[in-house]
Amino acid sequence: MQNNTEPGLVMSASYRHIKVPTSGEKITYVDGKLSMPDQPIVGYVEGDGIGPDITRACLRIWDAAVEKAYGGKRKIHWCEVFLGEKAAGLYDGNYCPDETIEALRDLVVSIKGPLTTPVGGGFRSLNVALRQDLDLYACVRPVRHYAGVPSPLKNPGKVDVVIFRENTEDVYTGIEFKSGSPENEKLAKFLREELKAKFFEGAGLGVKPISAFGTKRLVRKAIQYAIDNGRESVTLVHKGNIMKFTEGAFRNWGYEVAREEFGNVTITEEQLYSEYKGKQPEGKIVIKDRIADIMFQMMLLRPEEFDVLATMNLNGDYLSDAIAAEVGGVGIAPGANIGDGVAVFEATHGTAPKYAGLNKVNPGSLLFSGVMMLEYMGWSEAADLITLVYPEVVSDGIVTYDFARQIDGAKEVSTSAFADALIERMQGGVDLNAKRKAQQEQLIKERKQREIRRLLQPTEEMISTGRVPHTVGDLMTRALITVSEDETIETVMGVMADNSVSSVVVDPNAAGQWGILTRRDIVTKVVQGNKNPATAKVKDLASRPVVSVPAETTIRDAAAMLSAKNFSRLPISQGDRIIGIVTETDLFNAIKKFGWTAE
Ligand code: NAP
């Protein structure tokens, strides 16, 4: 780490205490893109409590990874900026000096340790202040498991998601009115009298603003991340079935931004099934959505189904901590707050004051926030070096106190000794290419397995991955039983009985028209028409042309059509082909399983 007296650091004319290294170059952000020099200046905030211990250790590890990956061609020039207690000491009690905000904006990329939020005295939380002042609207939390790290899950290796949490809206905007206050009473009166709202007397009131602007910029970032990092899907997590005009609107705007701005690289999950039959096309990211409560279940039961999650402030708050707990908890969960042109990476835990200065705690959270930062900078080789050696060191049982108490036979080491072990392992030589290749092969294998499941058991997959059906394509039977028009009725009755179906689809005739033959057709036409089933042909009894609907037809429209036409089944068409069939029983079962919420 450089200190203030080292040559190569100058006090910028505009800064009181911040010394910008003259040896590096500024990172710039132009037209939505980072421009990354080989010798960038990156900001860091040491943090309070355990902050200095973990920051010291991490700076050494990041520098060693960059040196090892690029052989000296690239190097980070660190610029210390001040927040929290260290800032208060330098800036006359000011925990969040203006020049720090200015420097973080100017430096474009920075990383920070945990900060004490002084209680009382009218202080804004420093983290909230940073988010607001720098408009860091996306809180990004990658959560994945590293071999050897203790976890309550049976297969924690399957967890590998990146959560994009909206940082500026939702019930966190602080628009709240205390029960009994004049403001509360005024608002309650307005809601009751003008808008006919009903709620209990004396309720505390809060406002939940969710805008198209706030949603779209967040989802845009999540999709761009998925594109840049070769991810498979982006899931919009919401509770839109209950809060239609806030969380439901988030879902709709999320799909809208995908369609309008990323239409050539995204498909919806509906399309994945209806147009691509569950086989994900190369180069396309699947946009899907899940109800928030189901998402918690899914992250325990089928975490491998999810990749990038985009959600609102409150859902994101709960989800990121819950998912982090699946793979090692706050001690190693990294995070970042990112806006347009400014990114601040940060440890997600607090200052753990009882361990301050003891050189004892786990540097993992800050370390992996730095890994995210290196990836954000496009320096993935250095990032990969750290993620590759980390599980090796932990699996050898070299860990800090928090893991040592959960791993039998582990050797507890200090923060700095853990850093030494990582650096030593990196310098000992890591076959980055072989490891990356093995990881890639594993990824492809898992994708293939998921694809096979989607192809073979679409409805079971829908249920077990938490998908809610929206269209008839989601519910249709694809294993169609078809017969030729020249078959006898007797043969077809045998086919129906053997397969326990009440209808068969009839192959197209010379005019290309598909048909359908139902049990009811047979009963009425054979009996009333005095036909002999052994000699009568399918073409004599089938209904032609068949009335069909496309797979994208909503369940609501399909139900209306069944009722209007007095049908009990609908063949599903794609172009001039019949590709499946959905029956009244399928719709009945879907409503029984998933319920029905008015739209
Ligand atoms: P905390 O500092 O996160 O500590 C809670 C517990 O988490 C610690 O006692 C320790 O558990 C464990 N822990 C945290 N960091 C760890 C690490 N690096 N390695 C191993 N274990 C770790 O939460 P807090 O005590 O609620 O908050 C203390 C202060 O931090 C408050 O001033 C709060 O405002 C601030 N805070 C800041 C941030 C931030 O800057 N991002 C975030 C949260 C809180 P054991 O006791 O079981 O060992």
UniProtKB/TrEMBL annotation:
NADP(+) binds at residues 116, 349-355, 362, 401, 405. The keyword Metal-binding applies. Belongs to the isocitrate and isopropylmalate dehydrogenases family. Residues 476-532, 542-599 form the CBS domain. D-threo-isocitrate binds at residues 125, 127, 131, 141, 165. Binds 1 Mg(2+) or Mn(2+) ion per subunit. The lineage of its organism: Bacteria, Pseudomonadati, Pseudomonadota, Gammaproteobacteria, Nevskiales. GO terms for biological process: glyoxylate cycle; tricarboxylic acid cycle. Keywords: CBS domain, Glyoxylate bypass, Magnesium, Manganese, Metal-binding, NADP, Oxidoreductase, Tricarboxylic acid cycle. The modification N6-succinyllysine is found at residue 112. This is Isocitrate dehydrogenase (NADP(+)). The record marks 172, 239 as: Critical for catalysis. Homodimer. Mg(2+) binds at residue 317. The keyword Plastid does not apply. Its cofactor is Mn(2+); Mg(2+). It catalyses: D-threo-isocitrate + NADP(+) = 2-oxoglutarate + CO2 + NADPH. Pfam families: CBS (PF00571), Iso_dh (PF00180). The modification Phosphoserine is found at residue 125. It is an enzyme of class 1 (oxidoreductase). It comes from the Bacteria. Its EC number is 1.1.1.42. One of its GO terms (molecular function) is NAD binding. The modification N6-acetyllysine is found at residue 154.
